[in-house]
């Protein structure tokens, strides 16, 4: 579990250094190879629409509301910190072996509760403490209080495997300043 989380966090650290915002980070958009290395995928090229995973607001584009940060739901704001929120939901998916977030709630309920900070996902059974701690650091209601992808990788590096040590962005590239990029949509 932890190595999968580390692989995705490393990929997202790279994307944030490149000033790229994913906007749809979820388990369904991560690929695992034969070596069990996890890679971030689906940059808007493929759109498998699962009715309960996406929500169409006002007849506009589909939105992955169960993975969206409060500010994205309220204001249509997407940046690296909204991707961090989604990463927290992805951690929950990893720990639950891909259960649907906010099971038992309708899409409208999820939008309402997350938008105003009235709901968080519970700790899954057998979830490692480090993942639970990171989930909460990702789900800080105020974007400025959220952990960065670089800090997530820093927290998970003690659990790295040899393949990660040899190939990870974290170990092979110089780190750039963590400036935030902002995308505002009217969707």
TrEMBL record:
Keywords recorded for this protein, A-Z: ATP-binding, Kinase, Membrane, Nucleotide-binding, Phosphoprotein, Repeat, Signal, Transferase, Transmembrane, Transmembrane helix, Tyrosine-protein kinase
GO biological process: glucose homeostasis; positive regulation of MAPK cascade; positive regulation of phosphatidylinositol 3-kinase/protein kinase B signal transduction
InterPro entries membership: Kinase-like_dom_sf, Prot_kinase_dom, RTK, Ser-Thr/Tyr_kinase_cat_dom, Tyr_kinase_AS, Tyr_kinase_cat_dom, Tyr_kinase_rcpt_2_CS
Catalyzed reactions per annotation: L-tyrosyl-[protein] + ATP = O-phospho-L-tyrosyl-[protein] + ADP + H(+)
Membrane topology per record: Single-pass type I membrane protein
EC nos: 2.7.10.1
Domain Protein kinase: 1-160
Domain of life of the organism encoding this protein: Eukaryota
Molecular functions per Gene Ontology: ATP binding; insulin receptor activity; insulin receptor substrate binding
Keyword Manganese: no
GO cellular component, one term: insulin receptor complex
A Pfam family reported for this protein in Swiss-Prot or TrEMBL: PK_Tyr_Ser-Thr
Name of protein: receptor protein-tyrosine kinase
Organism: Rotaria socialis
């Amino acid at each position: 579990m932890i190595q999968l989380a580390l692989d995705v966090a490393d990929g997202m650290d790279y994307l944030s250094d490149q000033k790229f915002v994913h906007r749809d980070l979820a388990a369904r958009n991560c690929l695992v190879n034969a070596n069990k290395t996890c890679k971030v995928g689906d940059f808007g090229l493929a759109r498998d629409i699962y009715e309960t995973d996406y929500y169409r607001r006002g007849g506009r584009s589909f939105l992955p509301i169960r993975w969206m940060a409060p500010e994205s739901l309220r204001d249509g704001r997407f940046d690296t910190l909204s991707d961090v929120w989604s990463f927290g939901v992805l951690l929950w998916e990893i720990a639950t072996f891909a259960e649907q977030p906010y099971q038992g709630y309708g899409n409208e309920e999820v939008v309402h509760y997350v938008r105003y900070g009235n709901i968080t996902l519970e700790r899954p059974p057998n979830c490692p403490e480090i993942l639970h701690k990171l989930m909460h650091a990702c789900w800080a209601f105020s974007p400025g209080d959220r952990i960065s992808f670089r800090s997530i990788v820093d927290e998970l590096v003690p659990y790295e495997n040899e393949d990660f040590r040899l190939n990870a962005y974290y170990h092979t590239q110089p780190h750039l300043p963590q400036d935030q990029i902002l995308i505002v949509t009217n969707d």
